[in-house]
Amino acid sequence: MLAAGVRLVAREGLEKLTLTDVGKSAGYSRGLPAHHFGSRDRYLKALASYVAIEFDRTLRGVDAATGLVAVLDITRAVLTQLMADPTRGMATQIVLADSRRQSALSEDLARLRDETLALLARHVRQGIEAGEVRPDVVPEHAALLIAAGICGLIDTWLAEPRFDIAAAGDQLLALIRHGLASRHPDPEA
Amino acid sequence: MLAAGVRLVAREGLEKLTLTDVGKSAGYSRGLPAHHFGSRDRYLKALASYVAIEFDRTLRGVDAATGLVAVLDITRAVLTQLMADPTRGMATQIVLADSRRQSALSEDLARLRDETLALLARHVRQGIEAGEVRPDVVPEHAALLIAAGICGLIDTWLAEPRFDIAAAGDQLLALIRHGLASRHPDPEA
Amino acid sequence: MLAAGVRLVAREGLEKLTLTDVGKSAGYSRGLPAHHFGSRDRYLKALASYVAIEFDRTLRGVDAATGLVAVLDITRAVLTQLMADPTRGMATQIVLADSRRQSALSEDLARLRDETLALLARHVRQGIEAGEVRPDVVPEHAALLIAAGICGLIDTWLAEPRFDIAAAGDQLLALIRHGLASRHPDPEA
Amino acid sequence: MLAAGVRLVAREGLEKLTLTDVGKSAGYSRGLPAHHFGSRDRYLKALASYVAIEFDRTLRGVDAATGLVAVLDITRAVLTQLMADPTRGMATQIVLADSRRQSALSEDLARLRDETLALLARHVRQGIEAGEVRPDVVPEHAALLIAAGICGLIDTWLAEPRFDIAAAGDQLLALIRHGLASRHPDPEA
DNA sequence: CATGAATGAGTATTCATTCAT
DNA sequence: TATGAATGAATACTCATTCAT
């Protein structure tokens, strides 16, 4: 029922998520989500945990590198994951975008988002220290803009499945690389 | 009552917008919006027109330049406008972000968004032709990512008014400039 | 505005009559009926008076005869009037049918209906005394059934304007004549 | 809740029927009818089916005879049923009277009414062919007037429960018999 | 006189929630 | 565990009514 919830949130938004729909969409009866989780709020908490775990899985295994390479790896991992497992991609989108305004999905997700941004910012800072990244870049702002780019791509893809997210993802990676890199050492070229 | 609607949509999202809130927030009675506009749907149509006009005002007067300079000018104009007139900034955010999934705000806004992206893409293409912009940039994707960056900044600022959107805007401009520019001729340096 | 009210009540029923519709249908603004009559209730009172007067005009000029002849004359007059002046016919229908359950159109109409039934019953009674009408006829019941027949014809005609109410009216007259007459003296044959 | 609906429609008319009243009147909560039937419209559909079935039961078991005897039997059955089971009597009234203008109660009832009138007309026609009924009677009009008479009695009885509907029913039967019968063979004398 | 803006009451509808099976 | 019946709160909508122009 949690995967069904992710699907419905990604498609219709959090506000339109009804327990009835969750039950039906998961192949059960109207009232099961309420019965099983006790209340809508507790269902949303469970959904948030589920989403957080899915999102976390996406970030695991990327952590090897540091600096600009890590930033690009993380971005690539998120986008690759999205194409391989749409549900997990939707989870990413929920963490990065929906968690901003809607506290309904609990503060856990907001915290997760903040941690992710902090992770990206840390790598950017390391890139600056290593001389890969322009020294006038503000790591926190760069992280925010990277996340925003990812969200924009996912949003577009969710609204229009024929959107070529692979090509657009390459553009995002190039934009980050050229946008952040200091002139002389190009980290991936 | 339309300005009140923009405020509420920007703060709580479109789904949570109730006619009751609109009436109260505009200083009127609970039922006036329904009475005046006939139905929620027609109110949303009116709101879309209002938002579209506000957004359009923001873009007017920027059109002088072309190429990468125009892209940067538009971005700067949107962000400047946001700080000067928050309501118009919220309108921008509604056009660029909310219009994606929620058809409730009519297709007018979706079209306006598409037109805006097309305008940005056109300027990027001119930048490529002028040699200012890397030739491997895909104009449509670049436009999308620029819009996503703007949305991300506005979203963050709406959620956290103390966010230094001026500084972050400068970072966005720098990211666009370095990210798109071909190596040798730097258009604004 | 009263004639418009009669039209609307005849077409849609009393419950669906809104002051807005009355105003528009009479070629004025939404709020004029309320402004002019003060309240819906007072408008309905006025409408009832208007209807009563229209109905009364229909019965005037028939009163010459007595007995079965008078019963047939009244019935004929009502039906003839209906075809000549639909609005007045609708008024008749309102008096004879709508006034039963809906006290909203005031007790005036109920009284008018009762008086009309009493008039018919009186003529039936005179017919009995004159030997024209079967002695086992109950005058009040006969009056009721005659009114019911008239209502049925008007109702059908309002729902289906192509209905041949003239022919059906002749059938009603024949049914009354044969149904009430004592065997030997046939009053109109 | 359907029986409650019949009761309320018979008492107050279809327009005044609110789902709130239905719920309360059936001993349930305000919102149950809407919840159970989905919408007012679907409730009315269900009510129409229920009414149609009840009405149909009334007509079943009368069909043995033909001609004038059948016409009188049907009329008597309807009136007897009314006294024995008021709810079913109300259903009859809804079919014969309310179905005329208000399409809300679906076309099913209008069709049922038409079929009933056609049944009566058929028996009248057989009566003409058998020589029991005056040859100048128009069967369809006769059927309409009989139905109108029945409606008139029920309406009066609903508005005034002390009304002696048994005696009035006898008068209706006598009126039909004398009104339709050809002179010489009196079918029930 | 006539119009339109504004209010508030009543109704249908949706949906979370509780409860019995 | 799972289902469906039932309740009650929140919201959109209709409409009579009041008031200012």
Percent in strands of chain A: under 5%
Biggest interface, residues from each chain: C-D, 38 and 38 residues
Overall geometry of chain A comes to elongated
Assembly state of the chains shown: homotetramer
Could you state the order of secondary-structure elements of chain A as H and E? Answer: HHHHHHHHH
What percent of the residues of chain A sit in helical stretches (DSSP H or I)? Answer: over 70%
Radius of gyration of chain A: 18 Å
The helix/strand class of chain A is mainly alpha
Write down how many β-strands of chain A occur, each being a DSSP E stretch of 2 or more residues: 0
- Show unreliable segments of chain A: none
- Terminus-to-terminus distance of chain A: 45 Å
Polypeptide structure, described:
- 4 copies of one chain form a homotetramer.
- With 189 residues, chain A is mainly alpha-helical.
- Chain A has 9 helices and no strands.
- In chain A, helix 1 crosses helix 2 and helix 5 packs parallel to helix 8.
- The termini of chain A are far apart.
- The relative contact order of chain A is 0.12.
- The model of chain A has no long low-confidence stretch (mean pLDDT 88).
- The first copy, chain A, binds a DNA duplex (21 and 21 nucleotides) through helix 3.
